[in-house]
Structures are given as C-alpha cells and as structure tokens.
Amino acid sequence: MTFWRDKVVVVTGGSAGLGFVLSQAYAAAGSQVVIASRNENQGQQAVENIGSQNACFIATDITNPDSVSHLVKETIETYGKIDVWINNAGRSSRGLAKETSAEEFAELLELNFLALVRCSQAAIPHLLSTNGHLVNIGSLSAKTASPYMGAYAASKHPVAAYSQQLRLENNPQELHVLLVAPGPIRRQDNQPRYEEQSGNLPATAGTAGGGVKLKGICPKLLASKIMRACQRRQPELVVPAKARILFALGQLFPRVGDWMVKKMTGYKKESSDATTGESN
Predict the structure, then answer these.
(1) How many CB atoms lie within 10 A of CB 258?
(2) 9-23, 59-73, 178-192: least confidently modelled range
(3) Is it true that domain 2-243 has CATH number 3.40.50.720?
(4) Measuring CA to CA, which of 36, 105, 163, 234 is 20 to 30 A from 111?
(5) Domain extents for the chain?
C-alpha cells in the first residue's frame, strides 16, 4: 500500500490485541509506527516482532497528561509529524448496572473516554498540519447497551458522541475522524476473562461481547477495514455492518431495539436459568 508509505502512525495500546495487529498492518504497509503502552516488556517485544526499522515503543500511561505530552513530544522530535493517531487503549467490564459503583463508572470513563479525549487534544494540532486521521476505537457498545456489561457501555457511548462532534466542527479534508464500532474481536487465547466480575452473572456474561450472538471478528480483517476506511475518509466503520439495523431500530423504536438486544445476547434464557438454578 503505497498510500501508507512513510506515514507516521501512533497506536495507543499498540502492544497487544487489536492494537498490535494494527501496528503490524501499518508497518507492513510502509508506515513508521509508534507503539504506546504501559507494558514495557510487551511493547519492546512488539517492536522486536515488527522490526525496529518500522516501529518504536514509547512507554505511555494515557490517564496521565504528562505521559501523553511526552508521547507526542517524542514522536514529533523523532519523526517530525503525525499522520494517524489511533485511540485503541481501553478495557471492558462486567456487572449489573444497578450494582456497579459510581467509582467503577468513573474509573472506566477515565480510561475509555477521558483518556481518549486527552490523547485526541494532544494529537489534533499535528494531525491538522498533515490532513491526518484520528481513529477512535469504540465498540458496538458505543451505539447500543447490552446487559451485564457493568460500566462499559456508559464509557463507550460518549466516544461516539465525541467523534461526531469533532466531525461536525472540523473540515473532514483537514481532519478525518473515524469512529470504529466493532463487535467482539477474536483473540489468540481462549482463556476465560472477567471471572472475578461475572461470578454471579449468567455464564455468557463473561464471554467476548457479553454473550452477543455474533461470530468473533478476525483482527487482521478489521485492521485492513480500518486502513481502507481511513483512505476513504469514512466517518464510521461498524463491523458487522448489519448491526446498523439494530442501531436504527433502537433509535426509532426503543422497545424493539431492547427486544433485539435481549434476543442477540440470550438474555431471557440466561435470566431464566440463573433464577431457577438450572445449569447452562
């Protein structure tokens, strides 16, 4: 992809998961990739896997303003510009909304949204000078809530609103803002997750996507779709695309939207099993 040759791409959370796959993909296309992560061992290993000629690692805590400023400063001093900034770092959660504390909501809002705003504001002046791309990795939960996801949906919804506001306030040819709203992404390991948080919830709550009945998305395929969406300067990328139907129906007919979400997550069946004590 000659389009990406010699572009400078910053990926937060770029040392693992989708972030690492994105780092690999941009590097393979000829970009200089800056991997930002708190995990230094993972970050250095990611650079070794990609190759130091196309990637570097900068230890970064996106919840710390000084750390974000350092990331931008080091990137500009090393490469002189930023063409793409990918806000990928974040995490999910599990729990009943009525039992999730305000402190837990605040913690996830800080990581999944406020840190994204902090990074975006630091990057945008440099992206404007390169007619660059700001990529915000959201989730289907940025568009619609799901049961048993604790504070996650509330921390991802504002990512969609913030992305839209940036699009409305900026010329898309000067600053391209892309909201990515994917379903559950396939992982290399199939180890159980969220066990501590989902112990008293239905079994499917601890699975990817909180039990949503969607096939796991191949991260390499998603990365290629993101790169293509950047080239086309698309405003949004929803994967799978059919989820847009749910979003539209949920806005027009909330009861229908809620019914569809419950059906897609097996909510009624799991709730019944949890109540009667039957095993799944």
Answers:
(1) 15
(2) 178-192
(3) yes
(4) 234
(5) 2-243
